[in-house]
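Project standup — Tuesday

K.O.: blocked on the structure for the chain from last sprint. Re-posting the sequence here as requested.
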Amino acid sequence: MSILRLAHRWAGGLIGLFLAILGLSGAMLVHKDDWLRLTTPHAAEAQMQDTATLAAAVQRIFEDPDPPRSIVLASERLGLHRLSYIDKERGAYADQTGEIVAQWSSKWERPEIWLFDLHHYLLVGDTGKFVAGALGLAGLAFVITGVILWWPTRRLFTFSLWPAKMSRAAVVRQHRDLGVLVAPLLFISLLTGVAMTLPKVEEVMLAPFSSPTEMKASEGAPKAKGGPLAPDTDWLELLNATRAQYPGAEIRTIGLPTKPGALISVRLRQQAEWLPNGRTMFWFDPATAQQVATRNAQTLPTGLRIANLEYPIHAAKVGGLPYRLVMTVSGLALALLGSLAVYTFWANPKFQKRKRPSTPHARA
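H.V.: unblocked you, prediction finished:
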């Protein structure tokens, strides 16, 4: 047990600050849509999903001399379309008529964009994504070992949001008791985060449900080749074709081909899907706007359907405000536990030297 305690303490002191950053940024991102609704024009408007309105906006956006590569359409919580460009640093928000209301050429121009990049990539791209996943694995180890270390002291449990004083003993006691209290939330947050950032770990987790080969074969784009993008694509007809097959589904994203032979892609979210943008797919030939292939998310292998639950659970995209608050608590708790772990490890407590009692001199 002493070795486990020593390993827990040293690891926490070395990477606790990084876990704190992931926790705090995650807690803030849960409320990204609320921030945009308060600060961005038209963001609080009600979502419009009739195909005529969508087609008119899509046509206006894609007719721009510098069109985006894809559009994420307005949702129930955010009344703006988000535009993404070939240059991944660039982006824009458009209202539901297709008019640009905000745009940026660098992630540093939008707080929600760089915060997302910090949380998912640690601001250093794919390498940061891998590191964030590794930190998540370490966080899972902290949760498990923390519960093991707490168990012998369970009768001393007391609830406290903040240490009674900033002595090492008081901080460790508060860290131990708060950690075990939020352990289930942290386990869910960290496990789903690891699954999204470390594909090999995710494969192992999903292997009991579906083989990696089966999942890979089911999620790839069709092999069919399309022609060059026609300048007069009938977006209304195209969107009506998707709506006709899934009348109750929400049309979520539209993507243009980014290389020769690629297809137009459209994603829908059926009511049973938790993933905000869904995984029900349509592909169309860019030259003729004729449907080439479709995929029903409800018929995907079990492993992929489980994988599609990771992001909505991790980012609190289901469950409404109550679950968003739960995941906010999880993120803030991770930030507090990580930062205090670093504090107790690196701080230099001042130990007062005890004065030795003077020995009385013998009388002559």
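K.O.: great, moving the ticket to review. The chain has twelve helices and eight strands. The radius of gyration is 26 Å.
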